[in-house]
Amino acid sequence: MSYRIGIDIGGTFTDFALLNLENGRVSTYKQLTTPARPAEAVLSGLDVLFGRDNIQSQRVDAVIHGTTLITNAVIERKGSTVGMVTTAGFRDVIDMGLESRYDMFDLRINYPRPLVSRRNRCEISERVLYDGSVEKSLDPDQVKMAIRSLVEEQKIEALAVCLLHSYARPDHERRIRDIAIELYPSLYVSLSSDVYPDIREYPRWTTTCINAYTQPVFDRYLREIENGLKQRSISAPLFIMTSNGGTVTPSTARMFPVRALESGPAAGVLMSALHGRNLHQANLLSFDMGGTTAKGALVNNGEALKRYEIEVARMHGFKQGSGLIAKIPVIDMIEIGSGGGSIASLDSRALLAVGPQSAGADPGPACYNLGGKEATLTDANLILGYLDEGSLLGGNFQVVMNKAVEAVEKNISQKLDLTLARSAWGIHDIINEGIAKAFRIHASERGFDYRDSSMVAFGGSGPIHALEVARKLRIPQVIFPVGAGVMSALGLLASPLSFEEVQFKHVFLEELDYKTFEENFRRLKQKVSMTLVASGVPVDQIHFNYVLDMRYSGQGYTIEVAIPEVETLRSIFPTMKRLFEEQYSTVYSQVDLKSSIEITTWKVNASGPVPPFPSGYKTWKDGSNPSKTKNTTRKVYFRVTDEYIDTTVLKRPSIEPGVTLQGPLIIEESETTVVVPPDYAVNTDNDLNLVAQLKSID
Questions:
Q1: 3-74+220-249 sits in which CATH class?
Q2: Which of 48, 287, 556, 635 has the highest CB neighbour count under 10 A?
Q3: What are phi and psi of 155, to 5 degrees?
Q4: Is the CA virtual torsion 84, 90, 91, 93 positive or negative?
Q5: Taking the domains of the chain in order of start, what are their residue ranges?
Q6: Does an H or E element contain 583, and which?
Q7: CA torsion angle for 587, 593, 598, 599 (degrees, to 10)?
Q8: DSSP characters for 457-510?
């Protein structure tokens, strides 16, 4: 037997998925995250998984890991002390930002603080022009003085090198890196010309600063994981999930930790797309909800929408421009501070509010009985009957109803003079409405009409809330895949090795010949190929995607134009004008027949073979313990009835394919619970997916 293991760290729980490559069976596990030392949860969970399933370490072929460590480090400001070397006169660019307001009418508008304090930024008198020519050469002595000052006086651990126009000529940045490493071999150095070689200073420099800020933290974390695997005699290669849905080796991840900002969530979206293709559902809304956050992403024609920018540490959850920009290839998703640990409280107007503050894994919701006193969404769901005291994590984690009742009554019910049930439902429904609102905004901004689409719901909390969220969005069908509670970990198992290279190179399309067109892509193709070959992917198994950022002359913003798969780039070159106009008209509903067309940025993505992943997999073993599959009933509150009603509780392993189940229902499996209101019906397909649809009520 040989195995692949997927491990996904969330803010509250760490998820595990183990795939038997010979028979296609999947084993899953979930446990609380250890926020102070996230590697502990990873390694202790492996011990449980190996012991429970009698897995021999030498039989493991690969370990694939997704983590929220990078995102959390930036949001919580728990990264390293960073210094910055920049061109004279440009020290304050990362303070100035884009000089735009994300809210025109907010007189007290706030922006996130730069990751590098002003005193840690050193200017040097060099200058490269936009065409790559050198106006003023680098002074090595000045560089040495600046670096010594930053390291010895400011005690920096990492250095971000951000020079003007380094995208056109990276020589100066590379020389600074060499000097820095020569002086201080243990210093972490990030170059803007490596991290994101683009003309725009602010996004290029913020991305580089995020990379430098998280590099030491991520390196230490990976060392802990690698040492832990070695101690357990696991010699299989370790791969790290990136934000674009591909995986990289630890060495690449150490160089570019910023690319792992959305590491774990991206895997869940990939799995949603896979399920959609298997079920012939081309357009989907992917809904992931765990203990800390909820994420939404769109799948169009079987593929997840992607972009080359993400904002992290937003000051306003829904408003673009309120966070730090990171220019990385990323699956396009919206993230909301809503999860099982979201804390319920009264705002300044004595109105009920839930989140974005979270109880996390430590101390967690009050019902965890680990010291938490605040009322949380999980406490409300327990009171409503959606969760059972003895059913969490397959019965391996006990929650305490009395603690939940005490927290909700003290913090909410008594203050609002509401019944316990209405208070709990208020907490539950506010979360649903907030998620629905965020998804509406996200979809409308991208011209996506989800009303004729399906939703794929997963995560520890997603299946509890999915049908009420779908009701608000008027989505007719919701799919609950097998193993929905750990689907991001499952998605890791189906993720290929992948990396992307970018180069800013401005040229007018009308002045471009096909030889230069091919050569620009060839250089990037060669560079990105080296990364995958070094990771063990044969050259003949590498697949390439080509993308151009294009615009009309004089415009400040570009659109992405993907180049269709063709035998040669030469054959597609004559059609570039048409491809651009088609994409432009899709975005803006018109074209400009008079203006010249510019290419600004060239992108090449290389990916290896997609690992095989079985359809029709199960996350439980044949011959399950009967106690785990025993069906029961309990009192459950539903808003459509406005009362607690006797509700059948089914264990998911007991449900046969091809049956139709009428709500109300609670369907439990080890890592999550599906809540089916009275006006919904659920069908099971041949692969044991649950497909829920609204039904009429007599």
A1: alpha beta
A2: 287
A3: 60, 45
A4: negative
A5: 3-74+220-249, 78-217, 342-428, 498-607, 626-694
A6: helix 576-588
A7: 50
A8: EESSSHHHHHHHHHHHHT--EEEE-TTGGGHHHHHHHTPPBEEEEEEEEEEEGG
